[in-house]
Amino acid sequence: MFRLVEKRYLFLALSLLVIVPGTLSLIIKGLNVGIDFAGGSSLSLRPEKQLTITTVRNLLRPFPLKDVQVQLGNDQTLAGKGTVWVRLNTTIDSTVQNAIKKDLQTLYKSTSLGITFDDLVYSGKKVTIVTVTNFPTGVTPKVEDIRNALSKLPNTTDTTQATSSSSVSSATPTPTSGPSVARTPTPTASAPTKATATAAAQATATATAKQVTPTATATATVTATATATPASSSNSNAATIPVKVMDIRQGTTTQTINILTVTPLDPNLQAAIEGAFINQGNTYVQLLQTATVQGSVAADTQRNAILAVVAASILILLYIWFAFRKVPRPWRYGVCAVLALVHDVLVVLGVSSILGWAVGFQVDSLFITALLTVIGFSVHDTIVVFDRIRENMQRRTVETFEEVVNASLIQTMARSLNTSLTVLFTLAALTLFGGVSIRPFTGTLLLGIFSGTYSSIFNASMLLVIWEKGELGLSWLRARFGGAGATAPSGRRARERELTSTRG
Amino acid sequence: MRRGTALLLLLIVILAACAAYIDWPNTPGIHILGINHDFKVNLGLDLQGGVRALLVPSNPNEQVTDETIQAARNLIEQRVNGGLGVSEPSIRVQQNGNQYSISVELPGFNTGNQTQALQTLLQAGNLEFWDTGSTPLAENSTFDPSQYTSTNPGGKPWFTGKDLDPSQIGVSTDSSGQLQINFAMKGDAVSKFGQFTQQHIGDYLTVTLDRKVIQSAVIQSAINGPGVITGRFTLQEAQSIATVLRYGALPIALKIASLQTVGPTLGTDSIQKSLIAGAIGLGMVVLFMLLYYRLPGLLADLALALYAGLTFAVFKLIGVTLTLAGIAGFILSIGMAVDANVLIFERVKEELRAGRLLAAAIDAGWKRAWPSIRDSNFSTIITCLVLFFFGNTFGATIISGFATTLILGVLISMFTAIVVTRTFLNVLVPTGVINHPALFGLPAGSIAAATAGRRSSL
Question: Transmembrane residues, as ranges (chain A) (predicted)?
Answer without folding.
Answer: 305-324, 336-359, 365-386, 417-438, 444-467
